[in-house]
Design brief:
Layout lengths: L3 E4 L2 E4 L4 E7 L7 E8 L5 E7 L6 E3 L7 E6 L4 E6 L8 E9 L14 E2 L3 E6 L1
Parallel strand pairs: 2-11
Antiparallel strand pairs: 1-3, 3-8, 4-5, 4-9, 5-6, 7-8, 9-10, 9-11
């Protein structure tokens, strides 16, 4: 069982930055792929980025490439999302999620993830 708690959301002006954190409970954090998703009103919950369990390989949605950076600290059981050059269209509730490692899993899909945080609101004003 893994429990996830996000923090760091808030209101920021366009062009600004925020850093989200996701603290995980449990001793097996380092064995999970960690993802960040976002859910904007009227849209689906979409992948933002994910990071592998050990070697740290990453994936980014095209909409955030070059602006967002995911990282993890397995010693602290925490995954981070550094968001720079924020745009109003980045406004959403951001969720972190944990998925077990599997060779044929689609880590861009919400159905792959077993554990979810409660979400943190990010609002970018124009």
């Amino acid at each position: 069982q893994v429990q996830l708690v996000e923090s760091g959301g808030g209101l920021v002006q366009a062009g600004g930055s925020l850093r989200l954190s996701c603290a995980a409970s449990g001793r097996t954090f380092s064995s999970y792929v960690m993802g960040w998703f976002r859910h904007a009103p009227g849209k689906d919950r979409d992948i933002v980025t994910h990071i592998s369990a050990s070697v740290g390989s990453t994936y980014y949605a095209d909409s955030v490439k070059g602006r967002f950076t995911i990282s993890r600290d397995n010693a602290k059981n925490t995954v981070y999302l550094q968001m720079n050059s924020l745009k109003p269209e980045d406004t959403a509730v951001y969720y972190c999620a944990a998925a077990p490692v599997c060779y044929y899993c689609d880590y861009t899909s919400t159905s792959t993830y077993d554990y979810w945080g409660q979400g943190t609101q990010v609002t970018v004003s124009s």
